[in-house]
Amino acid sequence: APPSRDGRPATVHHVLPPSDGGRSDEPSAGSDPSTVKRHFRRRLDSARADSALGGGPDRIRRQHARGSLTARERLGLLFDGDTFREVD
Length: 88
Prior knowledge:
- The protein is mainly alpha-helical.
- It contains 3 helices and no strands.
């Protein structure tokens, strides 16, 4: 990475965490752009599904046992289906 304005190495921020380190289904550096985009989309969908679980299934069960809804469930009741889009 090129140095930052103050001369130190620039920090690289990834949109998604690195995958499992060289899995065979990952596209190589010279892959077709549509293959790279398809792979990225699968990883993004997986990360979104993981984030939708919030604190995980056990925490959600405990909230429900207390008679509480999760934040996502409360937002789902508050907004119409296509009026709210979560942005990272």
